[in-house]
C-alpha cells in the first residue's frame, strides 16, 4: 500500500518551552524547489525544542485518528520528488525524503501505545510562536442537507456547478465572455441573477451555508446520497453576513450562529434573505462525487479525505500540508480543555496566521453542533523529523519564521 515511504505518520509539532519566547522575526519566504540556505543573521535565537513530556496531557492523548490521517498524507508524499521541498512556502519543513523515516515508522503502529513510542523516537516538537500574539482555533464539519434533482419548493436554490466560463487564473478567476474577452469573475449578486447550472437543488439557506462550509452531503428522497465537493470560487473576498445582520439590527450577537441565522432567514422574506446573502460577494461552485466511505469526510486541500478529529485546516502560506500538529485548546464540543494530535490537510479563506487552525469534526448535525462551540485561543506545536530539526539548528534557524510567502 505504501510505495517508497510506506506510511509517513504523524508529522510536525512545533514546540518550544521558553516561558517568555522571543518574538519571531517576519521575513518573506521564497517559493523554492529545494530548501535554500538560511543566513543565521536573518533569524531570531533558537528556541529549545520541547520534550514530549512538556506537551499538555501527551501520555493520554488518543492518536488513532491522527495516525490514520497521517498515513493518507504519506501516500501523497510517496508520489512527490524525493529531493523537492515538502512545501515551497515553508522551507523549514525540509525535503520530501526527510519524511520517509517517520512515514515508514508509523506505518507499523497498531495501537496508541506503539504510535506514541514511534512518534517520540522520530519527531521533535517545536512550538509555533505567533509574532502578533494571535491564537485562534475554530471548528468545521461536513453538513448533510436534503436536496432534490429538480427544483421543487422549498428546494429551489441551485447547488451551483463549476461554470464553463470560469478561468482559474492563479486564484483570481476570470470570466470568459461570449465575444472571447475576459473580465474578473462577477460577485454573488450578479451570478445569482444571471443563473447558474446545478448539480442539485436545495433550500436557499442550506446552499448558502454549504458555500460557507465548502462541501457537504446531499440527501435525496430515495435515500441516495452524494457529495457536493468544492470546485472553485469567484475570487471575491469573503465577507461576513452575520456581521451585517448584527450591524443592521436584524439579529443579536447571541444569534450569530448558523442556527440563529437560519432562524432569521426563515422569518425574513425571500427578498430580504437574498439581500443578506449578497453581503458576502464570494460564491462557491461544486462538483458532484459519490459518497465513498461514509466515515470519512470530503477531500481537503491536500487531496485526501478528512478524518474527524484527525484533520485540521491551516494557513498554507505558512504551513505545509500533511504535517502533524499538536494542539491545546478548549471548547464545549471537545469536552472542555482538550489536547490532541491533528494533521494539516486542509485550508480555508478565513484561516490566516501561524497559530490559526480549523478542526474538522465530521459529518452531520451532531458534528455541526460540536464544531459550532469551537472558538478559542490555544497553543500549537509542529512535529518535525529529527533530521530536519537538527539541520535547522545547524543552519542557524532560531525558530520557525511565520512570515507569509510573497504574493
UniProtKB/TrEMBL annotation:
Entry superkingdom: Bacteria
Residues of the signal peptide: 1-21
Region annotation Disordered: where it falls in the sequence: 160-181
Alphabetical GO biological process terms: cell wall organization; peptidoglycan catabolic process; peptidoglycan turnover
SMART domains: MltA
Domain Lytic transglycosylase MltA: 144-287
PANTHER family to which the protein is assigned, alphabetical: MEMBRANE-BOUND LYTIC MUREIN TRANSGLYCOSYLASE A
Name of the featured protein: peptidoglycan lytic exotransglycosylase
Amino acid at each position: 500500500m505504501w510505495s517508497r515511504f510506506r506510511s509517513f505518520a504523524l508529522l510536525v509539532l512545533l514546540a518550544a518551552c521558553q516561558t517568555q519566547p522571543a518574538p519571531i522575526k517576519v521575513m518573506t519566504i521564497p517559493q523554492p524547489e529545494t530548501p535554500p540556505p538560511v543566513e543565521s543573521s536573518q533569524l531570531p535565537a533558537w528556541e529549545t525544542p520541547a520534550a514530549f513530556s512538556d506537551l499538555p496531557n501527551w501520555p493520554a492523548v488518543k492518536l488513532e485518528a491522527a495516525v490514520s490521517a497521517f498515513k493518507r498524507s504519506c501516500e501523497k508524499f510517496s508520489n512527490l520528488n524525493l529531493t523537492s521541498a515538502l512545501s515551497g512556502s515553508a522551507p523549514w519543513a525540509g525535503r520530501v525524503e526527510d519524511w520517509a523515516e517517520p512515514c515508514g515508522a508509523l506505518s507499523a503502529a497498531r495501537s496508541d501505545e506503539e504510535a506514541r513510542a514511534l512518534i517520540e523516537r522520530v519527531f521533535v516538537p517545536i512550538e509555533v510562536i505567533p509574532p502578533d500574539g494571535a491564537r485562534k482555533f475554530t471548528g468545521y464539519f461536513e453538513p448533510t442537507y436534503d436536496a432534490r434533482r429538480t427544483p421543487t419548493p422549498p428546494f429551489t436554490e441551485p447547488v451551483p456547478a463549476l461554470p464553463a466560463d470560469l478561468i482559474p487564473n492563479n486564484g483570481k478567476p476570470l470570466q470568459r465572455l461570449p465575444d472571447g474577452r475576459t473580465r474578473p469573475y462577477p460577485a454573488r449578486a450578479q451570478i445569482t441573477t444571471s443563473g447558474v447550472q446545478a448539480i442539485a437543488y436545495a433550500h436557499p439557506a442550506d446552499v448558502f451555508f454549504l458555500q460557507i462550509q465548502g462541501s457537504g452531503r446531499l440527501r435525496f428522497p430515495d435515500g441516495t446520497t452524494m457529495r457536493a465537493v468544492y470546485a472553485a470560487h469567484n475570487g471575491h473576498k469573503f465577507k461576513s453576513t452575520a456581521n451585517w445582520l448584527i450591524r443592521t439590527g436584524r439579529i443579536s450577537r447571541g444569534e450569530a450562529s448558523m442556527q440563529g441565522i437560519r432562524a432569521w432567514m426563515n422569518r425574513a422574506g425571500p427578498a430580504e434573505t437574498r439581500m443578506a446573502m449578497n453581503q458576502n460577494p464570494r460564491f462557491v461552485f461544486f462538483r458532484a462525487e459519490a459518497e465513498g466511505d461514509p466515515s470519512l469526510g470530503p477531500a481537503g486541500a491536500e487531496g485526501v479525505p478528512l478524518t474527524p478529529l484527525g484533520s485540521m485546516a491551516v494557513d498554507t502560506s505558512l504551513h505545509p500540508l500533511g504535517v502533524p500538529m499538536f494542539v491545546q485548546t478548549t471548547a464545549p464540543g471537545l469536552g472542555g480543555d482538550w489536547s490532541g494530535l491533528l494533521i494539516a490537510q486542509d485550508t480555508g479563506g478565513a484561516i490566516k496566521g501561524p497559530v490559526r487552525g480549523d478542526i474538522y469534526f465530521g459529518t452531520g448535525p451532531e458534528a455541526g453542533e460540536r464544531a459550532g462551540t469551537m472558538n478559542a485561543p490555544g497553543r500549537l506545536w509542529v512535529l518535525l523529523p529529527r533530521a530536519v530539526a537538527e539541520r535547522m539548528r545547524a543552519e542557524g534557524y532560531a525558530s520557525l519564521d511565520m512570515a507569509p510567502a510573497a504574493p
